[in-house]
């Protein structure tokens, strides 16, 4: 999976990395049990600081998307994750923003369906 960072974005790099890995899992680009690069390797490969990668990995680990094993390394978790309350709150904010931008309910649902199907 190719990672792309927007260094001009207001979104922190660790959050961009975390988001891209979550999307990669949802889209099937990263499979359950697949090994991720080490923190050092990913930092060298992507040109970002090791502490930034470490922070993103820690978030993913805390959220249950990845697991770390001393012998096997960092792997994509094989168990699905329950929906968190803050995720649903975030979705509500996004839907509100789409409504305020003038999108109709059908347009929002069509976008949701397209994005959902991309992840299958």
Largest sheet: 2 strands, antiparallel
Order of helices and strands: HHHEEHH
Q: What is the arithmetic mean of pLDDT? A: 93
Global geometry? globular
Distance from first to last alpha carbon? 16 Å
Approximately how much beta-strand content do the residues carry?
5-15%
Helix residue percentage: 55-70%
Outline the low-pLDDT stretches.
none
Global structural class: mainly alpha
- Total beta strands: 2
Largest beta sheet: what is the strand line-up?
1-2
Radius of gyration, whole Å: 16 Å
Describe the protein.
With 120 residues, this protein is mainly alpha-helical. It has five helices and two strands. The chain has helices at 13-26, 39-46, 50-63, 85-100, 105-118, and strands at residues 66-69, 73-76. It has a two-stranded antiparallel ribbon. Strand 1 and strand 2 (73-76) form a beta hairpin. Helix 1 (13-26) packs across helix 3 (50-63). The two termini are 16 Å apart.
């Amino acid at each position: 999976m190719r990672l792309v960072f927007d260094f001009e974005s207001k979104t922190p790099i660790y959050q961009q990395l975390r988001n891209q890995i979550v999307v990669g899992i949802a889209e099937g680009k990263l499979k359950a049990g697949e090994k991720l690069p080490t923190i050092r390797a990913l930092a060298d490969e992507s040109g970002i600081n090791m502490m930034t990668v470490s922070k993103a990995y820690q978030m993913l680990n805390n959220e249950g998307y990845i697991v770390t094993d001393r012998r096997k390394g960092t792997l994509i978790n094989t168990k699905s994750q329950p929906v968190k309350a803050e995720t649903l709150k975030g979705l509500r904010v996004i839907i509100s923003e789409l409504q305020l931008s003038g999108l109709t309910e059908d347009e929002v649902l069509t976008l949701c369906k397209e994005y959902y199907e991309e992840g299958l």
